[in-house]
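Batch job 17 of 40 flagged for manual review because the log was empty.
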Amino acid sequence: MNPIRSFTLNIPEDALVALADRLDRIRWPEEEPVADWSQGTKLAALKELVAYWRIEYDWRRCEARLNDIGQFTTDIDGLSIHFLHKRSSREDAMPLVITHGWPGSVIEFLGVIDELVEPSDPDAMAFHVVAPSLPGYGFSQKPSSTGWGIERIARAWVELMQRLGYDHWVAQGGDWGAAVTTAIGQLAPKGCKAIHLNMPIGQPGPQDMASKDPKVLKAMQALGFYREWDSGYSKEQSTRPQTIGYALVDSPVALAAWILEKIYYWTDNDGSPWDALSMDQVLDDIMLYWLPATGASAARLYWESFAKFGAGTVDIPSGASAFPKEILPAPRAWVERTLTNLVYWNELEKGGHFAAWEQPDLFVRELRACFAKVV
């Protein structure tokens, strides 16, 4: 018997005092000799964030919000899994398991859960929302042995939905959440009716190398930029996660710099990360890495599964929403090679990699439009 346990966050005040002490004793590097972010997180931007973190940021606000939604843990395959779970009052609500990625967390979904669960429009589709923390992320247990890749996580999420009593449900995800959700689709468990991705997964084929299609050209250009300039984090985390883990677990500034760079490059902004997300939103997410010290354990998912990202095909009903500032945009033709039963596709005019976080209203609309086709 593996019971569902209620989980209440109450971080000891000593941990917050210790963080403040570390933020008071930073040894800063010199300013970057370039005017842009091409060498990484800009010193001025990071100093601004850290000053806010030290003086104005209120962790207890975030803690109260998570507790208000409803937090739980349960043991699956020998690992304690943390998850948010909020049920709708609507009898016709569809159960939904929604999965975050890196450098995100369940914080990405704080702006969409209430509307998904209790729609402001009584005629809109409602959901019972389940948002697990990936193993080694947030307040899920850190695996002590290898083998917790995306396929195993997908099986754990199927078990979680069954354990919660949901005999029919849908799944959604972006980033690692897209990989896990794709793996759920490949498993095609009896209860899963459809999946939706906000990071459409697709790879170019030989026929795309000489294509003149503007969407293909844009995707190929983005892939080239990612490989040459934007993938250093993934190369390090997929080959030497333990090495970078020391900095991410020991130094709050290293952790903030590591994450803020991706907030800047992966959001739909006009030159500042704060165009897309507030400092409170970013720090809430950073705290879900700092407080449980998951910098190394989260990075290990890259070591486990980065080479398998997006492999295989999905035959159950699937949908995808393409946001314009996605880091690896995939044209519909590429996506259809993976999602062979694509019942919903939409290209949006704004938004980036963190769709639910950046554009909560559009994200909710996309989920309803997709899943209405299969429910």
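Reviewer: the log was empty due to a logging misconfiguration, but the result itself is present. The longest strand covers residues 79-86. Unflagging and moving on to job 18.
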